């Protein structure tokens, strides 16, 4: 039978890069491509303990739950958010299947085909995919190491009348950037004046390398949730473990209520076993001490990789040392196309993500994203050697 | 700030019934309204054992997984499906957050605004919501206790040129019906001739009360997945426990591949902790013996409730004894509006779902759905007494 698929599928650009990276899954190729946390730091014992408590709670733990998510976990997360100056009630929060689902649900309740969304340049690929699948028009705002250039933001808002601005202001994916306070405040002010909703995606905010620095979320700058014009999402994937697929979103109750209606028809609710496990984990495990441990190790791995990058001595290689998060954004000499380099690199046995995939438009081809959290020292050395060989071979054939 | 929500929200009819039922949540009201399994039969020890095995597998159990779902569970489910004459490979299967997500994802990849979907009369409310949110036009096909009336199906296909037919052929929600073999074969033949995709929703198929009877799935009648024109979905929610939110969908690989692309942007993947737990449960726990136990108890509860219904002696009360599943579909005397009865019933302390909510169009107001799986004998007696009192009060005020 001939299938008559939705035209939404046209929104998904098939990507040669994705096809190449698929080949590396499950193979022996060293991957700097994924955004995987280091498994060796997963708090397996604490998870096991927490699950025991769920089971001790009896059989009702296995029943259907609320679409908005397990309430004790929401209450616990509200306290955690309050410690970061985000003051919300459990009714202003919903638990989701990772923060990815928060992006998807907000898009479903807020965006119609042809609506305009502004994003950073570059930005998170899987958010672009969500927006594209919904038929949104996406424009990128010129951005530097301090965040979006406010003049360009203002100009693009005036020009396009967007409904939504999507940002990852703290240790962004892919660029590893952190926005300055001035840019955060500026974004908020400009968007409020134009009634443009802000979606603040914060999966990496906890992975901070410099002690003492403070990067207040845009949500916290916007004050109480009601009418504040900011939707904030985060996740346990980077601080506890991804397999729980548990994220949360906070926003004006009016927005949460609409997202919950869509979530109900999307999947009724996310796994409450996982939500209950995470609740007990938060109650009995020092998550902040654990995050401190991750910060230390990831910071080390980042410095280890940037040192190796320096040793490469490729002329024209540029990067900014990340202040947190999971990625180094590398600019290659202008004549080098990272997608072509990737093909050779995979033959050598190492993978990365060409930066071009992270652009809504006019990709910059001489860029790449390197993940430093998932590989140990030895593997990182080996991978960088392979990368060096790939580059040599690229330059010889150029 | 004034929010500019998507017009998709218009698709969600706000329902007075849903508002009333919300009031009953967490209250002391006896509920025949939900579709909840009986908690006392949840295999808590087996779940605990299975989770231990996940933990024993080490920290990699907590890492990101495949969008399509944990492969060993897919393999295990393929064997289980094969025992029911549904022969698929793991590539023709995807794990979802409950079968609800399978309905949503198929709708996202297959349906555009204005496309036509045919459904049973009555049918599952939360499927109607998914279709409505996508802007589909829904028409119901006249149905009786043997399933859709094939003449009406054929006429409506000719008239509307639908893309999809959605059916729950085995122990349907809400009507508790089971389609005859003739109707199953007829549906398949007619839909194939017209190139209409069939979505077969089978959450209740395992909850069968009559031994020896055999209700082959439409998918099994359609032969191998490739090109068979049937998408089949089921779930662990009714046989193991809902909190895992783990369902699966099988179909032509072309369809699974497109659904996986949408799932990736919807939530990357569902909880792999839950999927791994269910895998170990399937390997070390006699699920079929457990299902036999559920069948026995649910059958008892069904007969207990239908006996109480008989004792009500309401003139004009009609129902068909379900051969499986979780619901009794009750037809009240024609002058009685179940939505009005519900208001009084809730005051008396008992709830049910008025049948009118389960219709795509032209609801039949003198119907109600009763769930018999969640309440024990004592509670069921009490609830039926309250229901009797509500009816008395209704008739007095009529």
TrEMBL record, chains A, B:
Name the domain of life: Bacteria
Q: Name one Pfam family in it.
A: Aminotran_1_2
Keyword Cytoplasm attached: no
Domain Aminotransferase class I/classII large: where? 41-380
Q: Which UniProt keywords apply?
A: Aminotransferase, Pyridoxal phosphate, Transferase
One of this protein's GO BP terms? alpha-amino acid metabolic process
* Alphabetized GO MF terms: pyridoxal phosphate binding; transaminase activity
- Cofactor(s) this protein requires: pyridoxal 5'-phosphate
InterPro entries, sorted: Aminotransferase_I/II_large, Class-I_PLP-dep_aminotransf, PyrdxlP-dep_Trfase, PyrdxlP-dep_Trfase_major, PyrdxlP-dep_Trfase_small
Matching entries from Gene3D superfamilies are given as: Aspartate Aminotransferase, domain 1, Type I PLP-dependent aspartate aminotransferase-like (Major domain)
**Its quaternary structure?**
Homodimer.
Tell me its family: Belongs to the class-I pyridoxal-phosphate-dependent aminotransferase family.
Q: Which PANTHER family match?
A: AMINOTRANSFERASE, KYNURENINE_ALPHA-AMINOADIPATE AMINOTRANSFERASE, MITOCHONDRIAL
Protein's name according to its UniProt entry? PLP-dependent aminotransferase family protein
The species this protein was found in: Paenibacillus sedimenti
Query: Which classification does the entry list for the species?
Result: Bacteria, Bacillati, Bacillota, Bacilli, Bacillales
């Amino acid at each position: 039978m001939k299938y008559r698929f939705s035209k939404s599928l046209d929104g998904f650009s098939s990507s040669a890069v994705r096809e190449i990276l698929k080949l590396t899954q499950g193979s022996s190729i060293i991957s700097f491509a994924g955004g995987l946390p280091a498994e060796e730091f997963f708090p397996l014992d604490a998870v096991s303990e927490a699950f025991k408590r769920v089971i001790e709670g009896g059989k009702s733990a296995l029943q259907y739950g609320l679409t908005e998510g397990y309430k004790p976990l929401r209450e616990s997360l509200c306290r955690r958010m309050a410690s970061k100056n985000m003051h919300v009630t459990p009714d202003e929060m919903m638990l989701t299947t990772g923060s990815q689902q928060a992006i998807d649900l907000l898009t479903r309740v807020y965006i119609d085909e042809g609506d305009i969304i502004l994003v950073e340049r570059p930005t998170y690929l899987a958010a672009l995919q969500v927006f594209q699948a919904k038929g949104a028009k996406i424009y990128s705002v010129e951005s530097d190491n301090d965040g979006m250039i406010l003049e360009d933001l203002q100009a693009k808002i005036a020009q396009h009348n967007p409904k939504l601005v999507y940002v990852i202001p703290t240790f962004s994916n892919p660029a590893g950037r952190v926005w300055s306070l001035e840019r955060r405040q500026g974004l908020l002010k400009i968007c409020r004046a134009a009634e443009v909703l802000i979606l603040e995606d914060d999966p990496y905010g906890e992975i901070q390398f410099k002690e003492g620095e403070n990067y207040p979320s845009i949500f916290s700058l916007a004050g109480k949730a009601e009418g504040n014009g900011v939707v904030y999402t985060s996740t346990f994937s980077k601080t506890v473990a991804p397999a729980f697929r548990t994220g949360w979103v906070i926003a004006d109750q009016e927005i949460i209520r609409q997202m919950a209606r869509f979530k109900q028809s999307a999947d009724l609710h996310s796994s409450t076993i996982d939500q209950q496990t995470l609740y007990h984990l938060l109650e009995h495990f020092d998550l902040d001490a654990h995050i401190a441990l991750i910060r230390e190790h990831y910071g080390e791995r980042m410095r280890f990789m940037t040192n190796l990058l320096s040793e490469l001595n490729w002329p024209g290689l540029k990067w900014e040392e990340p202040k947190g998060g999971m990625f180094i954004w590398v600019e290659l000499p202008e004549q080098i196309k990272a997608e072509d380099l990737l093909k050779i690199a995979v033959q050598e046995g190492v993978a990365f993500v060409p930066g071009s995939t992270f652009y809504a438009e006019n990709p910059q081809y001489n860029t790449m994203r390197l993940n430093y959290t998932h590989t140990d020292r030895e593997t990182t050395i080996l991978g960088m050697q392979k990368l060096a060989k790939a580059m040599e071979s690229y330059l010889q054939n150029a």
